[in-house]
Amino acid sequence: MRIVLLGPPGAGKGTQASRLASNLGLVHVATGDMLRAEMSAGTELGKKAKGYYEAGDLVPDDIMIRMIAALIEDEGDEAGMVLDGFPRTVPQAGALDEVLQHSGGAIERAVNLRVSRDELVRRIAGRLICTSCQRPHNIESSPPGKEGVCDECGGELVQRPDDRPEAVERRLKVYEEQTAPVLGYYEKSGRLRQVDGEQDPDRVFSLLLAAVR
Ligand code: AMP
């Protein structure tokens, strides 16, 4: 099964996509995590993406489409996947369908996690991410056992540069203008489902499971 998880920044895509992938035995593909890994390794792709990323802008479609097409071509998609953070524009959604068509696959479901703007801003302000395994934590809702240390791997927890208030405003605007139209793309082909992302994480997860089954 191939699933796309949609929603604004701070909606819980990373946390829920990771849970969904382990529950259904699918591969979790997170383009934001892939970019962060490229940037910390200092690759050419990482250098190209850095300026856009830190400002809260989208990395250009051609770079992102090449990155996802290479992943699918190199690793195959037979195991199925949960995509988190891709597609973020209508051209990316179209390109994804085309790439999968070549391998005989398709996105069967797109699920949108709906969360109000006030709640998004509150969640992002408290978010910390592990520099080593990228697991997200939240000072308020899921504080680490030891301050500044990842519960999962012991790595260092930091605020993402794009979670600073100036970049968050920009990301929410970019979401409204460029990513929200992706909902219409999946709606038209009957693949879109909506889930209330403001419930507690366990409840959101069971709603999500019901939506993809
Ligand atoms: P995320 O971790 O999914 O919130 O992504 C963090 C940042 O990475 C975004 O604000 C963009 O700058 C960049 N990014 C991740 N995925 C994409 C994508 N599909 N298209 C363009 N930019 C992306």
Bound molecules: adenosine monophosphate
Output the structural class: alpha/beta
Order of helices and strands: EHEHHHEHEHEEEHHEH
Integer average pLDDT:
94
Radius of gyration: 16 Å
* First-last Cα distance: 10 Å
Q: Which strand order spans the largest sheet, edge to edge or round the barrel?
A: 2-3-1-4-8
- The tally of strands reads 8
Helix content: 40-55%
Overall shape: it is globular
Major β-sheet, in short?
Answer: 5 strands, parallel
> What is the tally of helical segments?
9
Low-confidence stretches: none
The share of residues in extended strands comes to: 15-25%
Question: What features would you describe in this structure?
Answer:
The protein contains nine helices and eight strands. The strands form two sheets. It has a five-stranded parallel beta sheet with strand order 2-3-1-4-8, with helices on both faces. It is globular and about 45 Å long. The protein has helices spanning 13-24, 31-41, 44-55, 61-75, 90-102, 117-125, 165-179, 181-188, 201-212, and strands at residues 2-6, 27-30, 81-84, 109-114, 127-130, 136-138, 157-158, 192-196. With 213 residues, the chain is an alpha/beta fold. Residues 9, 31-32, 35, 52-53, 56-59, 64, 85-86, 88, 92, 162, 171 line the site of adenosine monophosphate.
